[in-house]
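Two proteins follow. First one:
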Amino acid sequence: MGYWNSSVTLPLSLFITIFLVIIVAINLAGVRGYGEAEFLFAIVKVIAIIGFILLGIVINIGGTPTSGYIGGKYWYDPGAFNNGFKGLCTVFVTAAFAFAGTELVGLASAETSNPRKSLPTAIKQVFWRITIFYIVSLTLVGLLVPYTEPRLLGATSVADASASPFVIAIESAGTTVLPSIMNGVILVSVISVGNSSVFGSSRTLAALAEQGQAAPVSSIGLLAYLANYQAYGRVFDWLLAAGVVGSWVGLICNVVILAAQLWVAISPLSTDGDERMTVTQNFFVQCLALPVVLVFWLGHKLWYRTSFVRVEDMDIDTGRRDFGRLGIIKAQEEEERQSWPKWKRLYRVIC
């Protein structure tokens, strides 16, 4: 909010309360309310990202009157990867945090009337969404905004630290209205993220609480008010570091990522002159998730004195839907597919 009027010092708790009320109201409306809200949020975000991609291409090739051809200039000066490979490793935690959320596809499948039909389509589309909305847009940001831009988070100047690289990219072209629109879209995205997080976490925590594996107090979302704390950025780093290991599970490069993360934790960037406490804090910010997961796992084992469940004893039938008519359903689906035109069959293969 400070992007529009940095001179007004309204308490952050005011905006947190407004956003929290909106998110709680949406989730109180049930699955239908969540779905309708996310549908509207998605329309805004998709239109904004597609518009940014088109505008970014125009800006990059010199289509605006205030900027010439940019191309890959910033990938050479000052460079594409700050601090080389180790600099890339330092953002693994943030990248994993940003990538998290795709598991909501599986969680939402329990709320659909026909998950067998709708879930494969949704899962296939995740790849294309990540490719278009993440990779393409971030590539354009890298082409339009150098890492030495002082308005970026973590730069030497914090006057415009709240500005997004998307906003900076548009602003650098000399436009006056579009940066404000993009900043508004970012606020909508923040509400959408909070809405999805409450939707997902409330169901997950409710299921864990029923099984005695989570305390009801863990569902309280008032940690957002820590934004009023002067060192809220550091608090966010700690919370972010505590919840990203699950995002790496299943990835082929999991071991490589963890090894690289341990490397930058033991030997972080620019440690010369840092106090010993700062170095220690940086280590745990990079590797906090591992001890947190181990403590919770061992604590549950010791407290409830549970034994390891063998594969043959795992319960995979409780809560499972009855698929006694599975053969008939498959035959009906195959008959429907045979009636599709060729373009639709090809589309269904990739989407």
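Second one, unrelated to the first:
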Amino acid sequence: MTFYSLSALDDRIKNADQLITVDVSKFANSLAELYGNLAKPALDMAIYNYSLSKSVGGEGLLFMSLLVQLSANVMRALTPPFGKYVADEARLEGEFRFQHSRLIDYSEEVALYNGHEAEKDTLDKGYFTLIKHVNC
């Protein structure tokens, strides 16, 4: 019922099948990994800082913390925006999936008006745009 109301009655969301299947799955996986990505590093940092302060003292801990912060800033400045690339890939996958679902919905009209070449060109354009983005 929700999928029908999204796909047939609401024009604001064009690729509801992608949102329901792929994006919900990615969200669930990310949510499941959240604990391990937040709690374990925080606990490791507390244990390592305690051990380091016991072995080298406060000055060594401060120096090492500054070194880690400096290297993190350098890495942040030099690495490309991977989050933007992943978001663009998800958007292109959604558009490609929407093109296929649109073709399935209107297949009789496409066959009646001999629009298979135009639809093939549209699908090829979407596919090659996605492949170009993934391979770059």
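SUMMARY FIELD: Residues 15-79 form one domain. Helices lie at 2-9, 16-78, 82-105, 107-112, 116-135.
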